[in-house]
Description:
By secondary structure, the chain is an alpha+beta fold. The protein is built from six helices and 17 strands. It has helices at residues 5-11, 17-25, 118-125, 145-153, 190-197, 229-238; strands at residues 3-4, 29-31, 34-35, 41-42, 48-50, 53-54, 64-69, 99-101, 109-115, 133-140, 155-157, 160-162, 166-173, 176-183, 201-210, 213-214, 224-226. The strands form four sheets. Strands 7, 8, 9, 10, 13, 14, 15, 16 and 17 form a nine-stranded mixed sheet that branches. It has a four-stranded antiparallel sheet with strand order 3-2-5-6, with no helix packed on it. The radius of gyration is 20 Å and the shape is elongated.
Amino acid sequence: MQERLQKFLANSGLGSRRFCESLIKEGKILVNGKVAELGSKVSISDEIFYEGKVISRTKSDLKVILLNKPEGVLSSNVKEKNRSIVFDFLPENEGREWISIGRLDINSSGLMLFTNNGGFANYCMHPSNGFDKEYLVRARGNFNQKVKDSMLNGINLDGEIYKFSDIVEGEKKGTNQWFSVCLISGKNREVRKIFNAFDLEVSRLKRTRFGPIFLPSNLRPGKFLELSNKEIQSIKDYHQN
């Protein structure tokens, strides 16, 4: 049985599929002693090398890291204007690239997950698997039942529907109020866009949950922990709940 080279590399844990495609384009992957081409297919009889090391078909142990992302840090693997990036806070991974499961914008904080397996990352991010995310939000403005109903029913922004699956109102001080909101789709800056559509200005945004995984209250910003096999299994089983 054959499969595309970039898919094989990603599933072996070398990196995301996009990262693996870039390695192929740069001529860094050899198949049977020859420089591989993007889109080529490999079978069980092929020998695949990266930086002189054989890429085994035996998948490496699945690892998942949870990071409490601080505000002001980029969810990127590329440095911009000497800003810190999330990968600065992660441990070494036996020479392999950590793969981010989703992103948070620079002004948001909280739970981010990373893995060593491209297939697992794609599984977690695919909309059909229905992983909901929970956020703690502080916003300023006029919030009422009509606004809440609209946020839950969905609003059309640039031809796309944006909505929360749940909203819980929290403490209110003056014009500021805290909210706990959940959503499934996870479009770019979706939480902020929904609040901004109702002239509610978001001043704090923190992700506190991804599917069955919660951000530990004692995990300080910039710190990480490795998920247990039981926690990883709970992610695999979550879409069935």
